[in-house]
Structure formats: structure tokens, C-alpha cells
Write a structure and sequence with these properties.
Number of strands: 0
Largest sheet: none
Number of domains: 3
Helix content: over 70%
Strand content: under 5%
Radius of gyration: 21 Å
Length: 117
């Protein structure tokens, strides 16, 4: 296999890196460089964090209530119950995001296997 054939097979991945990854990575590095002197408890940072949390909460709520794809086959009460179990796991295990995600995912899978269609 020559270099032209290898690039020919990999061109979608190269394009994904050039168009999808690198442009956002530049902004991440720039943000890290500019954020070094910012006080995390300042009103602006707290406000921005609150807005980001509200947007993320809205996206998660929309995905739970109006689920696309395979998740739409799981009944709503199972999805909401799994979210509650995930939140309980988060709070019970020292506010661990990993524990919350694992508990919620396990509850979703178990609920679907036991009570799903």
C-alpha cells in the first residue's frame, strides 16, 4: 500500500480532525490561556456557570422527555426513575459524578430489561 492509498482510505478522518476538532481546540487553548487570572468566585463567572448549568439541564430534560432513537422505546417513567436514581447515587457517594452516571445508567438498563416493551 502506498501513501496515496492510505490517505485515500483515511480522508474522512483527516477531514474530521481538520474541520471538527482543530477549530474548537484552538478556542479551548485560548480560553485556558486567558482564564489564568480570573477569580472563580467573581459574579461574572458565577453567572456564566449558572447559565451553562441551566442550558445543560434543559438539554438533559429534553432528551429525557422527548428522546430520539432507541431511547424513545424506553418508557418515560423508567427514564425519569433512572434519572432520580442517578441523582441519588451522585448525592450519596460524596457528590461523585461518576457514581451518578453509573447508577443512572445501570438503573436505565435494568428498568428497560425488566419493564420495557
Amino acid at each position: 500500500m502506498n501513501a496515496a492509498t492510505a490517505v485515500g482510505d483515511l480522508w474522512p478522518y483527516v477531514l474530521l480532525i481538520l474541520v471538527g476538532f482543530l477549530p474548537s481546540e484552538v478556542w479551548r487553548w485560548l480560553g485556558m490561556a486567558l482564564a489564568r487570572g480570573i477569580d472563580e468566585s467573581s459574579e461574572v463567572v458565577v453567572w456564566v456557570r449558572a447559565i451553562a448549568t441551566a442550558i445543560l439541564t434543559g438539554v438533559v430534560a429534553k432528551l429525557m422527555l422527548f428522546s430520539p432513537g432507541a431511547l424513545a422505546d424506553v418508557p418515560v417513567w423508567i427514564r425519569l426513575g433512572a434519572a432520580a436514581i442517578g441523582m441519588a447515587g451522585f448525592l450519596l457517594i460524596r457528590r461523585s459524578v461518576l457514581a451518578g452516571v453509573v447508577a443512572g445508567t445501570a438503573a436505565l438498563i435494568a428498568g428497560d430489561l425488566l419493564f420495557g416493551p
